[in-house]
Amino acid sequence: MFNLVISAVFPALVIVAALRDTTTMTIPNWLCGLGALLFVPVVFAVGVTPVAAGAALAVGLAALVVGIAMFSVGWIGGGDAKLFAVCGLWLGWREALPFVVWTALAGGALAVALLGLRKLVAAWPHEGPSWWSRLMTPGGDVPYGIAIALGALATFPESPVMQALHVT
Predict the structure, then answer these.
(1) Domain housing 37
(2) Residues 10/134, Cβ–Cβ less than 8 Å
(3) pLDDT digits 0-9 by tens, 100-117
């Protein structure tokens, strides 16, 4: 039961972030902060090695720098940048490149899907919740937190936390 709870913490966090980004186009600071804070007790609870934990911290900081750079040029939102950093922290060094690749692939698929859906909805308009209308606005923003979450979920099974739990 312990392994199940521990292994569900990060996936639950990124799923909530993706849902919030989808419905509000924001990822709350408290959610990213919680993700960073929960990493510490989880690392100690499952016995991640200090080297792996230090490498994960370095990846998280590097991801934050990259995320801030992407935010500063308008490629992603501020919440996306922070979520990207939290994911880097949880996924560690070995999964950094696969995470970026999966996130980029998911982001491309998301953009193509939204383009198609937005054209379809524009052709057959109907009323829906405000978040749906905002999401379907032609030329509107893309909730990139969805792509980040998908990239994180695809690579989490090989993360230091899951390796320490021996759940692969």
Answers:
(1) 2-165
(2) no
(3) 999 999 999 999 999 998
What are the tens digits of pLDDT across the range 7-22? Answer: 899 999 999 999 999 9
**How far is 158 from 44, CA to CA, in rounded Å?**
18
Number of domains in the chain: 1
Kindly state the tokens that stand for 15: 């799923």
Instruction: Give me 74's structure tokens.
Output: 């308008």
Give the DSSP letter string of 23-65. Answer: HHS---HHHHHHHHHHHHHHHHHHT--HHHHHHHHHHHHHHHH
| Pair of tokens at residue 66 | 């990259």
Check the CA dihedral 57-63-66-72 and report its sign: negative
pTM of the model: 0.91
